[in-house]
Design brief:
Blueprint lengths: L34 E6 L3 H13 L3 E7 L2 H11 L3 E4 L8 H8 L7 E6 L4 H10 L3 E4 L4 H12 L4 E2 L1 H12 L9 H11 L4 H8 L3 H14 L5 H10 L7
Parallel strand pairs: 1-2, 1-3, 3-4, 4-5, 5-6
Helix pairs in contact: 2-3, 7-9, 7-10, 8-9
């Protein structure tokens, strides 16, 4: 697990970039410069633990932290981090929105999502927003360090569990994908609260045919009743209520 330890006393939220042109640090070869890391997470213990871990690694430099996306947008650009560790679930502005906002402000920076969320949809959102890596918070320190190095080099990295979840998600067909056009018409009317008789009258089809279609709809949506079928249809945007 990522260690949790408070930052040294007197440490500020953000550390300014050291070394201006002509300074000793500036004259170091670019490859020798530490990777500057900024942490965005709404849990203080996580931030402190990551700060302690980063300070313990010679090739990294902790430069600052933020408790949510809005604070990160205010602080991070001036600190010029090379790498940002970003949680997904945060108040005010979540991780994906933070990455989207910070990407144009820090075009050379790399973003590593560090979260407890293992949801294929969220993984895709984060990667589409500009994240270069996606890691879960149960990762070991060495795993995190390895991913940070890879992300800093511009490599795309997903934790094994994340890759497995994405693959499994691709294998599972989208609910309702096998519904016929007629079944979708009936489902839309069901979502509006029409009874079988009303559907029969609206579509000018016999009651047995309506019941046949309804039975197929329930089976294809793996629903036990009409209400459950309608809820699934709304959740997966199979129908829209006008």
């Amino acid at each position: 697990m990522i260690p949790s330890a408070p930052p040294p006393k007197g440490e500020h939220r953000g550390a300014p970039r050291e070394g201006s042109p002509g300074s000793d640090l500036h004259r170091h070869a670019e490859r020798a410069a530490p990777i500057r890391v900024f942490v965005i997470d709404d849990h203080p213990m996580i931030r402190h633990g990551l700060a302690a871990m980063i300070r313990a690694e010679r090739e990294f430099e902790w430069v600052g932290e933020a408790a949510d996306g809005e604070e990160a947008i205010k602080l991070a650009p001036a600190l010029e981090p090379d790498l940002l560790l970003v949680d997904l679930v945060m108040p005010r502005l979540d991780g994906v929105a933070a990455i989207q906002a910070l990407k144009p402000l820090l075009p050379r920076a790399r973003f590593v999502v560090l979260t407890s969320v293992l949801d294929p949809a969220e993984v895709k959102r984060a990667m589409a927003a500009g994240a270069g890596a996606y890691l879960l918070k149960n990762a070991s320190t060495q795993e995190l360090v390895t991913v940070m190095h890879a992300a800093a080099r511009g490599q795309r990295v997903l934790a094994p569990e994340v890759s497995d979840a994405l693959i499994a998600g691709e294998r599972e067909p989208a609910p309702g994908g096998d519904l016929t056009q007629r079944e979708r018409e009936l489902l839309a009317l069901m979502a509006r609260g029409l009874s079988n008789q009303e559907i029969s009258n609206r579509l000018s089809i016999a009651m047995p045919t309506v019941k046949f279609h309804v039975t197929n709809i329930l089976a294809k949506l793996h629903a036990d009743n009409r209400t459950e079928a309608v809820l699934k249809a709304l959740k997966h945007k199979l129908v829209a209520l006008e």
